[in-house]
Specification:
By secondary structure, this protein is an alpha+beta fold. The chain is built from 20 helices and 15 strands. The protein has helices at about 1-25, 30-45, 60-70, 75-105, 110-120, 120-130, 135-150, 155-165, 170-185, 190-210, 215-230, 235-245, 260-275, 280-295, 305-325, 325-345, 350-365, 395-400, 425-430, 435-440; strands at about 250, 250-255, 370-375, 385, 420, 445, 450-455, 455-460, 465-470, 475-480, 495-500, 505, 510-515, 525-530, 535. The strands form 5 sheets. A 5-stranded mixed beta sheet has the order 4-3-5-7-6.
């Protein structure tokens, strides 16, 4: 029991380190913002697919809608709250997995060991701390495993279906699981299929009652199929994801990328699979099918490996029991926990999270409640997206390029109240030059990634430039030959710009405003809201709204 207590303490330390990361050090992922927006819309009575665009299955949004309805913060704290709201589900996942392992005779020591190792795996935990559809799908999948193990086949069938309704990406794995359970429990196939039919009937009834079954089929089945068919496969991405925990990256060997806990899970788990313990035959079939499906996907992210790592844990537990060296195992776990604490606390990206919070709050503060925002995803949590296809991921890019989704064209009479220049929005503008010209001439970066209504351009020698005013208000006009050399006009806003002594003007949204120059040389023009005195502000350090720069070793700044 002393070694069980030691493992329990180490498990608690690993969890505490990840909890600190979850709250203060891990920047928001696009998907988290997307899923929060979907939950919040459902909480207001909107019907998925019919009332707002999505291409994921919707169960997560209904489960977490009551939580989203009680969150009114405009910044990153709203998403962090959702992260904490899903923690009980992760606890349920590990409890269900432990129950399943206990039923086949795996000791408490080995079960706690593998759970602690999973908490030390950066490949697992970097995605697990984020608010994602994967956690609910995993919980329902392992509930199905436990119910099948206990012969409750009606519940098993229903749980399998609901797992797919939580995450459509689990579809192939769930089909294989359904067949495996049907073969394993031939005497209860009827009950298994009854559970499947009941869950499908409930889901079908919802879409039928809400008159959304046609659009749901279009978004979930047709659009996802076409987008995957038309998309270009990322070269060797599966191998890249597998090798990253070993320090092998696209930039060569990077020692800081080594993920010791994930290496232990992969290597030990494969050994356990090769040894073929009869108690894990069905699980081995499910894991092989799961990995094979992921390998053929065109886009593979680390969160796709969450279910892989979880399914590998029983094989690791079996090997731990075979070694029978509990003291050595505790020592190895202590090393993994120490590495986990160091990585979680001293390779955080709190600067990115704080900058994301700043942009989200500023977008909320500096735009009207009825305004819209154009961005790669809905960063402005309490503003409507300007574009119907409101998160500019690969599916939207591919479908719009093939004419399946209508392009975005700003309405001069009602343009967006802000533009947020995240990665998705920048890529979108790069492939839509007319839209890029519109935003770069009718909006100005107050912060590097937050552009607000304000006009700019270069007036040719003895020429004239005209804009459609994007927002009603008081402005100041700044124009000079020196401004024509500003980096903004070269697509390179590299320094804070201070503006003083501009000519005050009053403009109305949708009206035309022109500037005529008599100068023999080009003249640069900035037409800036009167309340704005600084433009092109940059965050300090290597900070990014997308959290893209690799983490660096440093003492965390939590203030």
């Amino acid at each position: 029991m002393s070694r069980v207590r030691a493992v329990s303490v180490l498990l608690g330390l690993a969890a505490a380190a990840r909890a600190i990361s979850l709250t203060w050090l891990h920047p928001l992922n696009w998907d988290e913002v997307e899923f929060f927006r979907a939950c919040e819309w459902v909480s207001r009575g909107l019907v998925p697919y019919r009332d707002f665009f999505e291409h994921h299955t919707p169960l997560q949004w209904f489960v977490f809608a009551p939580v989203a309805a009680r969150i009114h913060a405009p910044g990153a704290i709203a998403i962090v709250a959702m992260r904490w709201a899903q923690v009980p589900l992760w606890i349920a996942v590990f409890c269900l997995l432990s129950l399943w392992m206990r039923q086949i005779g795996i000791s408490l020591f080995a079960r706690l060991m593998v759970i602690a190792i999973a908490l030390c795996s950066s490949m697992f935990m970097l995605a697990a701390v984020e608010f994602r559809v994967d956690v609910l799908a995993c919980a329902l999948f392992f509930l199905a495993l436990v119910l099948a193990q206990r012969g409750s086949m009606i519940g098993c069938g229903a749980a399998l279906v609901l797992s797919g309704v939580a995450n459509i990406r689990f579809g192939p794995l769930l089909v294989v699981a359904l067949v495996a359970f049907a073969v394993q429990r031939r005497d209860r196939i009827g009950r298994l299929l009854a559970g499947v039919a009941a869950a499908l009937a409930v889901c079908g009834a919802y879409f039928t009652i809400t008159h959304s079954i046609s659009i749901a089929w279009q978004r979930l089945i047709v659009d996802n199929y076409l987008a995957d068919h038309w998309a270009t496969r990322a070269h060797a991405i599966f191998l890249h994801r597998l090798l990253t925990p070993f320090g092998v990256t696209l930039n060569g060997f990077v020692p800081s990328a080594i993920d010791a806990a994930t290496i232990v899970i992969f290597v030990t788990g494969v050994i356990g699979m090769v040894r073929r313990d009869s108690r894990l035959n069905v699980l081995a079939i499910l894991q092989i099918a799961n990995v094979a499906f992921i390998a053929v996907m065109k886009f593979i992210q680390i969160y796709h490996f969450e279910i892989v790592i979880l399914l590998m844990l029983p094989f690791v537990a079996i090997e731990i029991e075979r070694w029978r060296r509990e003291r050595a195992m505790v020592a190895i776990l202590a090393v993994l926990v120490a590495i986990n604490i160091a990585v979680s606390l001293f390779r955080g990206k709190e600067g990115d999270l704080q900058y994301q919070d700043l942009i989200m709050r500023e977008a909320d503060r500096r735009t009207p409640p009825d305004g819209t925002v154009f961005a790669g995803v809905g960063w402005a949590l309490h503003r409507k997206p300007a574009y119907r296809y409101w998160f500019l991921r690969e599916i939207v890019r591919v479908m719009e390029a093939h004419g399946r989704y209508e392009p975005y064209r700003p309405n001069p009479a009602d343009p967006p109240a802000a533009f947020i220049s995240d990665y998705g929005a920048r890529v979108w503008l790069a492939s839509h030059p007319e839209l890029r010209r519109y935003f770069t001439t009718h909006y100005l970066p107050v912060w590097r990634d937050l552009w607000l209504p304000g006009m700019s351009g270069i007036v040719p020698a003895r020429g004239r430039a005209v804009w459609i005013v994007p927002a009603t208000g008081d402005y100041r006009l700044y124009m000079s030959e020196d401004l024509a050399k500003h980096p903004w006009f070269r697509g390179d806003p590299t320094a804070t710009t201070l503006l003083q002594n501009g000519m005050p003007i009053r403009l109305r949204r949708g009206s035309l405003y022109g500037v005529t120059s008599s100068s023999p040389r080009p003249v640069g023009v900035f037409i800036v809201p009167a309340s704005t005195t600084k433009l092109f502000r940059y965050p300090l350090g290597n900070v990014d709204i997308d959290g893209a720069p690799p983490p660096q070793w440093h003492v965390p700044h939590l203030w």
